[in-house]
Amino acid sequence: MRWTAWLLLIASSLPCAAQTAPQPPLPPESITVTATKPSEAAINNFISTRAVPTRVAGKLARWRAGICPEIKGVAPKYAAYIAKRLRDVAASVGAPVNADPACKPNIEAIFTTAPQALLDNVRKSAEVYLGYHDNAGQAEKLAAVTHPIQAWYTTATEDLRGNPQVDSGKGGGMEIDSLTAIPSTEGMTQGMSQPGGVVQMNMPFATARNVSGSRLGDGLSSAFANVLIVAEPAKLLDYEIGALADYIAMLALSQPASLDTCQEMPSISNLLVPGCTSAAPSITDGDLAYLKGLYKMTATANLRVQREEVRYQMSKDLEKR
User: Fold this and answer.
1) Cβ–Cβ contacts within 10 Å for residue 103, how many?
2) How would residue 193 be classed by pLDDT, with cut points 50, 70 and 90?
3) Is the CB of residue 229 less than 8 Å from the CB of residue 251?
4) Can you tell me whether residue 200 is helix, strand or coil?
5) DSSP 231-279
């Protein structure tokens, strides 16, 4: 059963926001931004605290496949608005968008009055949605719902030859046959040896990837395979649907290191940080500049180079405003 089918099965048994939450009027569907001219220090801080590397490749992840959002748990017109908003923001920053109306969802945003029950079921039935983890203890920690809106990222690593593998603490495993040598009885004093048998090494959690030898990039790149976003409507009644749609778009298109960091630079990502004075009611110039930098950077470069490329693109883009 495909991953999306698991989520729809899990979500269908839980209460949804449309049953209890008031429905505010829809805002205009154009992309509105807040003009900002942050300092270089603010830009650097934004990148260093937001751009988290993946566990396997140690790179910044972004969408390689076209995004296909699906919104559950709200009235159809609001689900359509959030999905369109996400697609519009993605297109504006250079992220790939799947134009097929019947595409297979790879971004699921679920509004539910029982978020922890949903994640408990995800952990039991579709653990890959939690993201990378090495053991049951890490899976349990990942599955804990701690924010009104929270995201879980399934990432994949693509090697030099374009072979993708979903990042997991449990690799597919591999076997290696190796020739051994036994000492030669005639040439012991000369350290000679002669062919022996074949030894098979079984490594159940190993993975094989083709890489380059460059210091600037090893040929590996990280990409999102799926993003699961869960929202609890009872804790979001004070926020406009437009602000929530922008917040979800930022989560869906980039993976933050933390949801609790108050950025000095005005940002929609500050929306739910308690007491943060630089929270913005909509996606900002700085947010869009960051996303543009993320989707323009060299996918195979090392983390230091990637962050520098994002910083350069942000600075260049914001100078024009």
Assistant:
1) 15
2) very low
3) yes
4) strand
5) E-GGG-TTS-HHHHHHHHHHHHHS--S-SS---SS-BGGGTTSTT-TTB
Residue 263 or residue 21, greater confidence: 263
Helix (H) or strand (E) holding 152: strand 149-158
User: pTM score, two decimals?
Assistant: 0.81
In this prediction, residues 259-273 reach a mean pLDDT of: 95
Sequence length of the chain is 321
Residues 219 and 300: their CA atoms lie apart, in Å, by 5
DSSP SS3 for 62: strand
Residues 258 and 250: their CA atoms lie apart, in Å, by 13
Residue 156: helix, strand or coil by DSSP? strand
Quick one: which of 61, 66, 77, 73 has its CA closest to 24? 77
Cβ proximity of 120 and 62 under 8 Å: no
CB 108 within 8 A of CB 83: no
Tokens of 241: 């649907």
Both structure tokens of 19: 């049953």
Domains in the chain: boundaries: 3-25+35-170+208-319, 174-203
- Name the nearest CA neighbour of 295 among 308, 310, 284: 310
φ, ψ at 262 (rounded to 5°): -85, 110
**Amino acid identity, residue 315?**
S
- Torsion over CA of 38, 43, 45 and 47, rounded to 10 degrees? 150
Nearest CA to 285 out of 246, 252, 318 is that of 318
Neighbours of 261 (CB within 10 A): 17
229 neighbors 254 (Cβ within 8 angstroms) = no
Q: Is 46 exposed, middle or buried (0-12, 13-18, 19+ CB in 10 A)?
A: buried
